[in-house]
Design brief:
Elements lengths: L8 H16 L2 E2 H8 L3 H13 L3 E3 L5 E4 L1 H31 L2 E8 L2 E8 L14 E3 L4 H8 L3 H9 L14 H14 L2 E4 L6 E9 L5 E10 L5 H5 L2 H14 L9
Antiparallel strand pairs: 1-3, 2-3, 4-5, 4-9, 5-6, 7-8, 8-9
Length: about 260
C-alpha cells in the first residue's frame, strides 16, 4: 500500500524556488514569483526564510538570488553517508555472520546516535532496533565511541543537550562520570556498555574514521547476557576493531592515525 503523503504547501513552494534557482543559476525576486506563479507576499517571506537559513543567497548587490552554500554542506554530508553505508553493508553482514550476533553502524546526529545499518544474519538475537532508530549517546557503546575523540568543549556542549535518563540500573546519569569513562575509551580504542541502555543486552563498539582520520561513525556488536558473559563479549572485540579499521580504510582513512 502506498505511503500516504502529507504535503506542506510552504515547503513545496520553497522547493520550487530552489529547483528554479538550480535551473536558472540566479534570478531576481520578480522572475521567481512571476515564473512560478507565487503570490508576492508569500514569495518574499519564503525567500527571506531560505536566505536566513543559508539555502539561498543574494548575489552581491544585484538583488538577484542564487543557491546558498548550506546546500553544498548538506549535500556533501548526505553523499558521505550514502558512500559510507554502501561500503559498510558487506562488512556489517560479514561481521554479523562471523560473530553470529547483531551488528550496527551508527553516527552522531546532534545529541543522539542514529543507526544507519543493522544486520542480524543468524537471527539468534532479538533486539528491538532498526536503521533509523535513535539511542542515547551516554548509555551506548556507540555513543561513547562517537564522543570519545571529540574535544572537551564539544563533549560538554553535546552532554549539556542530553537528557541523562537512567534507562537501567547500570546507566550513568552524571555528566562527569560519562566524561571520565570517555578517557578510558579513547585510551584503549573501543567501548562497551554492559546493560546500560537495555537490560540483558551487552555491546562492544569501535570507531570508524573518514579520509581525514576523524571518527565519523561507530561499528558495534550486540549480544544478550544469557548468551555471552562480559568476558566472552570482550573476546570478539578484535573482530569489531578490525572490521571498523577495514571500513575506515575503504573510506580513505590514513593507515595510521593519532588517538
Amino acid at each position: 500500500m502506498p505511503k500516504k503523503v502529507y504535503a506542506v504547501s510552504a515547503l513545496i513552494k520553497a522547493n520550487e524556488i530552489l529547483e528554479f534557482l538550480l535551473q536558472k543559476g540566479e534570478a531576481s525576486f520578480t522572475e521567481i514569483h512571476t515564473t512560478l506563479g507565487h503570490p508576492k507576499s508569500s514569495t518574499y517571506k519564503t525567500i527571506s526564510t531560505l536566505e536566513s537559513l543559508g539555502f539561498i543567497r543574494e548575489v552581491g548587490e544585484s538583488a538577484r538570488y542564487t543557491l546558498g552554500l548550506r546546500l553544498i554542506e548538506l549535500g556533501a554530508k548526505a553523499a558521505a553517508h550514502v558512500d559510507m553505508t554502501t561500503e559498510a553493508r558487506p562488512l556489517v553482514k560479514m561481521l554479523s555472520n562471523d560473530t553470529e550476533r547483531t551488528v550496527h553502524l551508527g553516527i552522531l546526529d546532534g545529541t543522539e546516535v542514529i543507526y544507519l545499518l543493522k544486520e542480524n544474519v543468524h537471527g539468534s538475537i532479538s533486539i528491538d532496533t532498526w536503521a533509523g532508530k535513535r539511542v542515547g549517546v551516554h548509555s551506548t557503546a556507540m555513543g561513547k565511541v562517537l564522543l570519545a575523540w571529540k574535544t572537551e568543549k564539544e563533549i560538554d556542549r553535546i552532554l549539556k543537550g542530553v537528557d541523562l535518563v537512567k534507562l537501567t540500573p547500570n546507566t550513568r546519569v552524571n555528566a562527569e562520570e560519562v566524561k571520565s569513562g570517555l578517557q578510558e575509551v579513547r585510551k584503549r580504542g573501543w567501548a562497551t556498555d554492559d546493560e546500560e541502555n537495555w537490560k540483558m543486552v551487552r555491546c562492544v563498539s569501535a570507531p570508524v574514521r573518514d579520509n581525514a582520520g576523524k571518527v565519523c561513525a561507530a561499528l558495534s556488536v550486540s549480544t544478550l547476557t544469557d548468551l555471552d558473559s562480559y568476558e566472552q563479549m570482550l573476546g570478539i572485540t578484535n573482530k569489531v576493531i578490525e572490521t571498523a579499521r577495514e571500513l575506515s580504510r575503504r573510506l580513505g582513512s590514513p593507515v595510521s592515525v593519532e588517538s
